[in-house]
Amino acid sequence: MGTFADEPDEAAEWAGACAGDSSAFAAVYDRHRERVFRAALRLTGDRHDAEDVTAAAFFELWRRRASVRVVGGSVLPWLLVVTSNAARNQARSVRRHRRLIDAIPRGVDDGAAAFEAVDDAVDHAGLARELREMPDRDRALLVLTALEGYSTVAAAEALGISAGAARVRLHRLRGRLREAHTRLQAPAAADELGGAR
Questions:
Q1: I need a surface site. Which of 28, 141, 157, 191 has the fewest CB within 10 A?
Q2: Whether 72 and 138 share a structural domain
């Protein structure tokens, strides 16, 4: 029982997949899909989420095929580790989604009003407008790190910039948002002082 490979030809299939042969990769997928799906289902408890996790695991297998660690003649152990990580990320995503839904005021009937309610909740005196006016790369960097919880290194990789450049951009963006917040709070504070007289 020292091997994970179902059949002796998995090594040949994997070698073909690493060389870019999509039919060889499909054979590896067919060999391990059910096992990965069952693991994902145990971890998530939901068929839809398990399908998403399975797809993410095989996407990572293809994307990182040059660096996948083969154990006992099989990629299955590596796949199961990735499945576990993807399930954890899926659970985090579900929790974030639930928090966002819980933040929507009750009694909101239609989708457009719901988005306006969320926008108002996130707006904080015009900060959402400030975010919308940022260059795409800067906004994506903030979304990845501040809202989605990705590390600066992961966000930098996703955006195709160096981690150092991402850190500098984030520092500047945080400063810009602090200044915008201060600027946007000043009129409200002046109104309160004027009304107190």
A1: 191
A2: no
Is the per-residue pLDDT at 105 higher than 90? Answer: no
Q: At 101, which helix (H) or strand (E)?
A: helix 76-103
CA-CA distance, 150 to 93, in Å (whole number)? Answer: 12
Closest CA to 41 of 33, 29, 49: 49
Residues 6+ away with beta carbon under 8 Å from 11: 5, 70, 73
Task: Please report which confidence band the pLDDT of residue 139 belongs to, taking 50, 70 and 90 as the band edges.
Answer: confident
Written in H, E and C, the secondary structure of 124-189 is CCCHHHHHHHCCHHHHHHHHHHHHCCCCHHHHHHHHCCCHHHHHHHHHHHHHHHHHHHHHHHHHHH
Q: Distance between CA atoms of 98 and 150, rounded to whole angstroms?
A: 18
In-domain check, residue 104: no
Determine the residue type at 25: F
Q: Which of 95, 119, 135 is the last residue of a domain?
A: 95
Q: What is the pTM of this model?
A: 0.49
Does residue 16 sit in the same domain as residue 88? yes
Whether residues 90 and 117 fall in one domain: no
Look at residue 74 and tell me if it is in a domain.
Answer: yes
5 occurs within a structural domain: no
